[in-house]
Amino acid sequence: MPLGLGISEAASTSAGTSITTAGATSTSGSAVVLGGTWTDTSNFTSFTDSNTNTWTQIQTELTGAAHDSRSYYAQNITGGVGHTFTLTINVSDFVSIWAVEATGAATTGVLDQSGRQDDVASPFTSPAVTTVDADEFLVGFCLSDSTSNPATHTAGNSFTKLDEIVNGIDFWTGASAYRIVTATGTFNTTFTVLGAGAAHGWIATLKAVPADGQSNYGTASADPGLHMQILARFP
Amino acid sequence: MATIPIPSQVYPPGVIALPQTPVPVGIDRAHLTLDAVQWTDPQTLLSVQLWLSYDSGVTWLPGGGGTARGEPDRRGKTGLPLTTVAFMWTWPEPDNPNRRVKGTLTLSGGSLQTSGVLTLE
Hints:
Largest interface: A-B, 35 and 29 residues
Distance between the termini of chain A: 31 Å
Radius of gyration of chain B: 15 Å
Strand content of chain A: over 45%
Oligomer: heterodimer
Shape of chain B: globular
Strand order of the largest sheet of chain B: 1-8-3-6
Low-confidence stretches of chain B: none
Order of helices and strands of chain B: EEEEEEEE
CATH architecture of chain B: Sandwich
Number of domains of chain B: 1
CATH topology of chain B: Hypothetical Protein Tm1070, Chain: A
Radius of gyration of chain A: 19 Å
Number of helices of chain A: 1
Helix content of chain B: under 10%
Number of helices of chain B: 0
């Protein structure tokens, strides 16, 4: 199964303690990357989803002048209809969440490279990362401090913009984006954002299901003797 | 664009139902704004849950949710007093003519003086 874009969602609140995306139909076995931002006077509590997948933090929390951000991923997810994602903080405050699903991603060891930085000059970029595999799914988030409405985001570097939150009066603004690459290289995200003075640029690169069939190693064989031959050849 | 109003009144603990409403083609987000000027009790918990149907109301899936407290003295991003509480969700299938939305606002722990509007954008 080649790498592909699955679901993508975003949601935000101006004075809530949690925000949950609308439900969408995700694919079991794929990978999901979450990005979230909140006012820096609040504290992160958790990322969760309606299918109780296991979430692993990417990098560490990024602290900015006014807002903080985190990113998490889950691999080999339990998907399904009405899949939602929730970001919870410790007090009532401004909170925004984005979710991006990559289908055809590796079910183990899916995260290759990642980076994040607080950029105070437009265009707002993530750190550059160099991928290890040829076929990878790149996910980017630009989480900005714009107080414009609409705070329109424009993605560069051949990334395709997905969901954006543009009401900078009521919410923390931002956008998600993705890019599928077929050769190793050095990549970063870049966004322009109307009215933003700073933005958190995140990037995560996800590996594809191995094309050499290693993911099938250990599955039952129609011919048990085949395994014996392999063991004898490669003791 | 379409709107679903929430009348101004003191709402006791319980469920406020947002009626089933067609979602116009082209809508890709919903924006709920609630007047919070009279919110004074942090023990009052508000839980918002929207439901979306893509088949004219036959089946329903989560359309977005959130929670808030009825506490006073909210501050906006710029530090100024905040008189509203807002939620926003992106929605899939903007070209689907069979979408419907409905929802509930559930209050617990106390009552809440509010009004608001769910705007489909």
